[in-house]
TrEMBL record:
EC number: 3.2.1.26
GO biological process, one term: carbohydrate metabolic process
Compartments where found: Vacuole lumen
Keyword Magnesium recorded: no
Domain named Beta-fructofuranosidase N-terminal: residues: 21-113
Gene Ontology molecular function: beta-fructofuranosidase activity
Protein name: beta-fructofuranosidase
Pathway(s) annotated for this protein in UniProt: Glycan biosynthesis; sucrose metabolism
Alphabetically ordered keywords of this record: Glycoprotein, Glycosidase, Hydrolase, Membrane, Transmembrane, Transmembrane helix, Vacuole, Zymogen
Family annotation (SUPFAM superfamilies): Arabinanase/levansucrase/invertase, Concanavalin A-like lectins/glucanases
Amino acid sequence: MVDTRPFLPVSSSDGSIPSERPANRRKPMKVQLSIFFGLLAVGLLAALLASNKGSDIVTENEHGSLDSSTTIKPEPLRPLSRGPAAGVSEKANLLFPKDNENTVAFPWNNSMLSWQRTSFHFQPEMNWMNDPNGKSHLFSFGPLFYKGWYHFFYQYNPLAAVYGKIVWGHAVSKDLIHWLHLPLAMVADQTYDTNGVWTGSATLLPDGKIVMLYTGSDTESVQVQNLAYPANHSDPLLINWVKYDANPVLVPPPGILSKDFRDPTTAWLTSEGKWRITIGSKINKTGIALVYDTKDFINYEKLDGYLRAVDGTGMWECVDFFPVSKTEEKGLDTSVNSLDVKHVMKVSLDDDRHDYYTIGTYHEKNVTFIPDDTELDVGIGLRYDYGVYYAAKTFYDQNKNRRVLWGWIGESDSEAADVQKGWASVQSIPRMILLDKKTDTHLLQWPVEEIDSLRLNSYEFNHVTVQAGSVVPLDIGAATQLDIMAEFEIDKEALEKATGSNVTFSCSSSGGAVHRGALGPFGLLVLADDRLSEQTPVYFYIAKGSDGNLKTFFCNDQSRSSEASDVNKEIYGSMVPVLKGENLSLRVLVDHSIIESFAQGGRTVITSRVYPTKAIYGAAKLFLFNNATEAGVGASLRIWQMNSAFIRPYPNLDDKSQ
Ligand code: DQQ
């Protein structure tokens, strides 16, 4: 069983494109047509440009698709910087800085680009998407789970696959997995949001009415807060929204710059019965969370001080603030505050585009949040996800007594490739979030149980021995839509015998999965082709310090994920606490170009976007690997092939609405 081939990738030369498609992949005809016509249009444009220069011409093959042998001539990449120009953080992939203008685009063809589209993650039919919006809790009752439907709103550019003038997309679901697209909820049609209907949150009032607060970028690109509400509360689909006629309800307060005031949270109740919200901002380089109280969502009182402020963290976007139970395995309404809860504050750092969370105590009277450990303060400590994951938001789901987290997962290929494929970004699988009662320092994130309904046939592997320096193929067929549960046991003797060292290990800078230590790396090679010329290792690395203490790291190595050069190839990861008596455990969701991986029940999470050129369709395979020099590893796995979710337009909408 053991494969003795070298672990290092062999260079591959045949350049063939696998064409087998998994049988269970469902793609709405409209999407296929859109992709086809989008690519055709890009192809024709490229052909025009090429003929102007007298160089290569793009041709169609007999099936009408672009031929891989006649793809667009690689052009040097000159990405645009879109977010900052609009007054928010960078939205495009920052891979190609100005000093690297010679990076050449890979000649992506239709077959490769089509494969990248995900099958069970939420995506609009086409174009650009970013932050999840509008999720809320209901006062004492639940989230924007309204009259039997989960509502999902998102930042959307309906006109292009790049960040642009943003409006609110809207979709509904009965189970958080299968989605029906609805018409845009709000568009940029007022002076106070003409440059974008930006991020906001919903709150459900005790009388069952919903209020939505959102940031508008006005005619002068000043960030203001606006109020909106459903036109018809008896419509379970909440199709039409009305903007309050005296908007904006809040403008940047004195001392706050006009482009540093955005993303109001869901409101929570104070013991005096007022609603309280927080809004992200900064003063010089200090990130801050401003606090306002309101009785009616129209008039606001600005409270002194900040919920929290942390030097050097820069602008705080998409602040989220919610309680977690210290005693129970369930979620809590946002207004709950007692000795049995801790509070979590999450900020999205504009400067590095990562989401950081901190666990601590909320002091209602002082209007402050104090972290349990100031070394893990807001914006400098733990992250929700060590890969691509930003602008996340939670909501309390009263339907299942749980708190659910959504995050925006951007692309990490080039903007030119996004334009070519006609879409950009996906949303994470919604994750249930709990306090990790064993560590008390971490949260646990876990895919919502509804995702299990997509599981098809499964494969079990028990106690597979993976010797030091070996690769073991897992015979499961095509490996592009998977749910993998794995446990690893490392050889105890080797653990004890290994000599400690003072060398500091880090996933990102210690050489990735080819760096061999006595006790790792070991784990899975995901989206790998037979020759391992493309592979994404998802793995553990155990480092023994000179004091004999063990530290476990959880990493994703994208450096060999694709033969294309114009994609992100960083190595992601961080430390993961492993408590006495625990085995090392892993869950990995593979869905075409996205790999979401959860270590130790979700204590540390990494999301990668990878864009293989060969390890696609039937040629995508799964392997176990162990690149340690000393320790053997035993692995037990259960692996499910995953069905696709139904994500499509709401049928016959005209009969249902208005
Ligand atoms: N995205 C929105 C802003 C938010 C940013 C604009 C975070 O409201 O700060 O699309 O990605």
